[in-house]
Specification:
The complex is a heterodimer of chains A (207) and B (478). Chain A is 34% helix and 22% strand. Chain A has 207 residues and is α/β, with parallel strands linked by helices. The longest helix of chain A has 29 residues. Chain A is globular and about 50 Å long. Chain B folds into 2 domains: 290 residues, NagB/RpiA/CoA transferase-like (Rossmann fold); 79 residues, no CATH class. Helices cover 51% and strands 11% of the residues of chain B. A 6-stranded parallel beta sheet of chain B has the order 1-10-7-4-2-3, sandwiched between helices. In chain B, strands 8-5-6-9 form a 4-stranded mixed beta sheet, sandwiched between helices. Chain B has a two-stranded antiparallel sheet with strand order 11-12. In chain B, a hairpin with a 4-residue loop joins strand 5 and strand 6. The chains are: A alpha/beta (207), B alpha/beta (478). Chains A and B meet through helix 6, strand 9 and strand 10 of A and helix 2, helix 4, helix 8, helix 10 and helix 11 of B.
């Protein structure tokens, strides 16, 4: 991919290595900064738990919001922790992303993130066969699970890493999405109103 | 609803006397202005970012031919189709044809100034295709049969009472007073439109040449729905929206969100490259990119005004413009308002269609100061004024033109000779006396000077000229 010489001007592979090294040293601070920024954009941060203990905050959320159905990514990490089966065991109905009318009626959509930008509180989601776009879009509540290794400092780090991967694998996703807080509008007399089109509530569970 | 001619003087007169509009304008521009000032001051190298953004845009526009071909190649490589539209009617025809060929009955749209510019909704309606605006502000405007009045907040001229009444009349629902209730009504109605639509039409904030990616920035999520749910996605993009490299986005997204609404990041940014891949579960099966010229290559050809094409449509120039803040968006008569409207409308429509617009500015330069790509508005406005005057040289259409011309001639005559200049100064002092008020102001002069005093007072001419006083002061102080 990429025509012409523009891809060759900078060595993004080595730049990305440098960036990742710096981020590694900052990991703990980045997490605190990220949580602060999330709070500023009306995002609910669920307390951090070890992956074996992911059930507890989820159970609370299910009870509080009276969730009955869910849609979920088939991504690697979510499979590894077997979240789909855990939720089914709790009596929630699974709705696949294939049918737009049905997923529009799911109570919650659960995703991971590919990256998380600490200084803006932004979640970065890449579309692929296991990661449909609708899960973070059509249900009224979106829950995103963030691992510390997803964090980058800022948008400029992110594009260096993305670009290094493009050079590497020669593939680009059909849709990358940045999510910073729940859907919002100020179109009526500048009153901030949440949930006009996308999810009304956004939860982030940081491991 | 179609745009008519630009009648700035007449429409701005109306706007100035519209009390609720005046209140709304102060409200929106103050809010956006202080949010932008705060957000930009948080970035330590803000001025460097602006310079860098301008450099990238300058390079892009000067090499647009090369980058457009690169964009086309990469969109095709990702499985998308590319269409070229030389003007508004060709763009509408292309998009309506895409719809007709696929038996499309209903279209959902996300906010796009380019589709306003080509009046796409009218073309869909003429073809018997239903089209629904899904941005909440645009939805309100569409129900009311009006045009947007602000690039970022299109329905800002409407109060919540107006909207409550409008929803009740058009949607047959009870009166709701709260913005939350009205928003909920819109969400439910529009969600079913999304699920039933055959095609989604969007604009784009940026198009990245080296990857074939279009980027859409929004807060509501309606652009995500428009580009995800229907089977066909059509994006109409002005050829000036290009940026060369993927990583350039980190700079442009930073300056756009902060300049527009004062957010660090907009709620949603979608980076779309082609249609859904075969293995993807959802997303549109077809992706069409319609590249719109409609006068842009004409601007590109003019070295003096070319920088008008650097604009990334953040709206900061509107919020900071003392003229926009009083006359609102509708006075500018077309899709684009404020300082950016004043420079691109005459260039895109033809200077003869909007000759008043380059004069709708005090040349204070507040727009230049906040522009994230540092467009030199005063310079471009002066150039356009020159073009207007030159085009009118041999066509004096009315007494207003004639009086203005004679006035300038007379002024030129007086300032060319010192003695005549001194004499006219003295003479005007005595001539003004019958109109001079006790507060030292002139507030109702006869025509043609009434054109000034109808709007505001004029300070009376002093008995002693500056030069006389200067001599005295010098004499006193030695």
């Amino acid at each position: 991919m990429g025509s012409g010489e523009t891809f060759k001007e900078r060595n993004f592979l080595s730049e990305a290595e440098e960036v990742e090294k710096v981020i590694d040293e900052l990991r703990g601070n980045l997490k605190i900064q990220f949580m602060d920024e999330l709070a500023k954009v009306n995002t609910n941060v669920l307390e951090t738990y070890e992956k074996d203990n992911i059930k507890e905050p989820l159970l609370n959320l299910i009870k509080e919001k009276e969730l009955k159905s869910f849609s979920i990514w088939e991504s690697e990490y979510l499979k590894e922790i077997n979240l789909k089966q855990q939720l089914k065991d709790l009596g929630l109905k699974l709705i696949t992303a294939k049918n737009k009318n049905r997923i529009s009626k799911a109570d919650i959509g659960i995703t991971e993130v590919d990256y998380a930008i600490a200084d803006t509180g932004t979640l970065v989601l890449l579309t692929n066969k296991n990661q449909p776009r609708s899960v973070s879009l059509l249900p009224p509540i979106h829950l995103a699970i963030v691992k510390p290794q997803n964090l980058v400092r800022n948008i400029s780090d992110l594009f260096i890493i993305l670009k290094s991967k493009l050079q590497d694998t020669e593939d680009i996703t059909s849709c990358m999405t940045f999510i910073t807080g729940p859907s919002r509008t100020a179109d009526i007399e500048l009153n901030l109103t949440l949930g006009v089109h996308g999810p009304k509530e956004l939860y982030v569970l940081i491991l | 609803m179609r745009f008519e001619e630009v009648r700035f003087e007449k429409d701005s007169e109306k706007a100035i006397h519209n009390k609720p509009l005046q209140k709304a304008l102060v409200n929106v521009t103050d809010r956006f202005r202080s949010a932008r000032n705060k957000a930009s001051s948080e970035v330590s190298n803000w001025e460097e970012l602006r310079s860098e953004a301008r450099e990238i845009k300058k390079n892009t526009i000067e090499n647009l031919d090369k980058y457009l071909i690169m964009l086309e190649e990469n969109v095709k490589k990702a499985g998308g189709k590319v269409h070229w539209a030389k003007d508004a009617s060709e763009a509408s025809q292309i998009i309506v044809k895409i719809a007709n060929d696929r038996n499309v009955k209903s279209v959902v749209k996300s906010k796009s100034m380019a589709t306003e510019e080509i009046e796409l909704n009218s073309s869909f309606e003429d073809a018997g295709i239903s089209v629904v605006e899904t941005d909440l502000g645009e939805y309100i405007i569409q129900l009311a049969g009006e045009h947007p009045s602000h690039i970022i907040a299109p329905a800002i001229h409407k109060t919540k009472e107006d909207i409550s009444k409008l929803f009740s009349e058009k949607l047959g629902i009870p009166h709701y007073d709260k913005p939350e209730e009205l928003t909920k009504v819109a969400r439910e109605g529009l969600r079913s439109e999304f699920l039933n639509a055959d095609m989604g039409v969007s604009g784009a904030n940026f198009a990245v040449a080296e990857t074939g990616t279009i980027v859409i920035v929004e807060n509501e999520g309606n652009a995500r729905l428009t580009t995800t749910v229907p089977k066909i996605h059509v994006a109409l993009v002005g050829i000036e929206k290009l940026i060369p490299k993927y990583e350039d986005l980190s700079l442009f997204l930073t300056v756009l969100a902060r300049s527009a609404t004062g957010q660090k990041s907009s709620t949603y940014v979608s980076f779309i490259t082609g249609p859904k891949r075969a293995s993807d579960v959802d997303g549109p099966e077809e992706f069409h990119l319609v590249l719109l010229d409609n006068g842009r290559s004409g601007i590109l050809a003019s070295e003096e005004t070319r920088e008008s094409l650097y604009c990334i449509r953040c709206g900061a120039c509107l919020n900071n413009c003392p003229v926009y803040r009083h006359v609102g968006g509708h006075s500018y008569g077309w899709a684009y308002s404020g300082p950016i409207g004043a420079i691109i409308t005459p260039q895109l429509m033809g200077i003869d269609k909007a000759p008043e617009l380059p004069f709708a500015s005090s040349l204070c330069g507040a727009c230049h100061d906040v522009c994230p790509v540092k467009i030199d508005f005063p310079k471009v406005l002066l150039e356009l004024r020159k073009n207007v005057v030159e085009s009118k040289k041999f066509h004096i259409k009315n007494t207003k033109d004639l009086i203005e011309k004679l006035g300038i001639k007379f002024w030129r005559f007086t300032v060319e000779y010192e003695s005549i200049y001194k004499l006219t100064n003295k003479l005007s002092y005595y001539l003004q006396l019958p109109w001079k008020r006790s507060n030292g102001k002139l507030n109702s002069l006869p025509y043609p000077f009434s054109r000034w005093t109808d709007q505001r007072d004029f300070p009376a001419i002093a008995k002693k000229t500056f030069r006389e006083r200067w001599k005295e002061i010098k004499h006193q102080t030695g």
